[in-house]
């Protein structure tokens, strides 16, 4: 099963809260209260997001955290990478591969293609998309391609898919 860790889930929740409350400077305490996550966990996630350049932090009594840029220029892939490290579904597609089968593996190229597809799908979803509610018709601002055939009809230009 592919699953993000709880810290990553909390990171996306926190980043969504920042995006929805953009005009405020947020302390770790106020964030923990607002999103109902324990303070030590919030502090750990804030540190990771800050080190990745997704948050700005100001020290001092009146300090706090803000998004480093607009929510529509931060992707879910960037948030996941900030907390989990580079997105790699298998050992052989990670930058730090130590797989003994790598030199003669027949499926490594396909795993690379799958990993790239997952990364690009996550990179297409912006933090601002996470705030948009689904309409009553069940549509979402997040567009996914339901099959490889539909995806193969699309072209990738400047990191974006075009039909």
TrEMBL record:
Gene3D superfamilies: Winged helix-like DNA-binding domain superfamily/Winged helix DNA-binding domain (1.10.10.10). GO terms for cellular component: cytosol. SUPFAM superfamilies: Winged helix' DNA-binding domain. One of its GO terms (molecular function) is DNA-binding transcription factor activity. Pfam families: Rrf2. PANTHER family: TRANSCRIPTIONAL REGULATOR, WINGED HELIX-TURN-HELIX TRANSCRIPTIONAL REGULATOR, RRF2 FAMILY. This is SUF system Fe-S cluster assembly regulator.
């Amino acid at each position: 099963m592919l699953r993000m860790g709880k810290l990553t889930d909390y990171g996306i929740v926190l980043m969504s809260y920042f995006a929805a409350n953009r005009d405020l400077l947020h302390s770790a305490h106020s964030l923990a209260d607002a999103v109902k996550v324990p303070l030590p966990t919030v502090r750990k996630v804030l540190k990771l997001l800050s080190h990745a350049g997704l948050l700005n932090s100001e020290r001092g009594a009146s300090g706090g955290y803000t998004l480093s840029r607009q929510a529509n220029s931060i992707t879910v892939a960037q948030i996941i990478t900030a907390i989990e490290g580079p997105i790699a579904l298998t050992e052989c597609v990670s930058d730090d591969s130590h797989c003994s089968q790598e030199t003669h593996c027949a499926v490594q190229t396909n795993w690379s293609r799958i990993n790239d597809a997952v990364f690009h799908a996550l990179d297409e979803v912006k933090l601002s998309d996470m705030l948009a509610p689904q309409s009553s018709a069940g549509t979402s601002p997040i567009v996914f391609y339901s099959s490889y055939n539909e995806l193969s009809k699309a072209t990738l230009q400047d990191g974006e898919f075009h039909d």
